[in-house]
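Journal club prep — side note

Before the paper discussion, L.F. wants everyone to see what a predicted structure for a comparable chain looks like in token form. Sequence:
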Amino acid sequence: MNIGWHLLELPALSLCTAAIEVDGLLVGQWMVSRPIIVGPMLGAVLGAPFVGAAFGALFEAFSIETAPVGSFVPMNGTVAAACAVLMSAGPAAVPPAAALPAGLALGLAATRVDHFFRERRGRLTEQALSSLKAGGRVPWASFLGRSVGGHAAAIAVFIYAAVAASGAAAGPLWSVLPQALRMGLSTAFDWAPWLALAILLRAMSFRGR
């Protein structure tokens, strides 16, 4: 086990990713939380810029047409890309063909965190409105800390736990998978850029109308 990775590097990278991810919560809205930014950034830090760029581009395409509407919360592409890069470019060296589906699964699992904090922000908004109607003072700092800060902390813990657990399990699991299944996953990974390109072309064609 790489103690330095689990005690220093992975926690720091998880926190940094979570801090950047709040850009998607109307905090800044500079688009730095997009997978196409987060993937290459993490890859560069880990000395694997091409791995980061590849996963960043793939998850950017996979999540480009999805947006939260009402109660629907789409896959968290930022978390998916970050987990895939950290697993593949980190000490676990998970094969990209295994890191891609793992990242997709973790990005979907992260929607539980997103959904929880969306509901929490709704309740905090109702509290703020009630306080304003009653002529009271709204504790904005406390509300922001509980809303944005709580979300960032939960995402950081999720990324750390997901990468630590999945990274440790994915490598050994990959080695014992049947050869046919490994070849199938490798083929799917090879075709993933073409799927991403098709998604981008479809998105561009609809926006051009």
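L.F.'s comment for the group: Residues 3-120+151-207 form one domain. Keep this in mind when we get to the figures.
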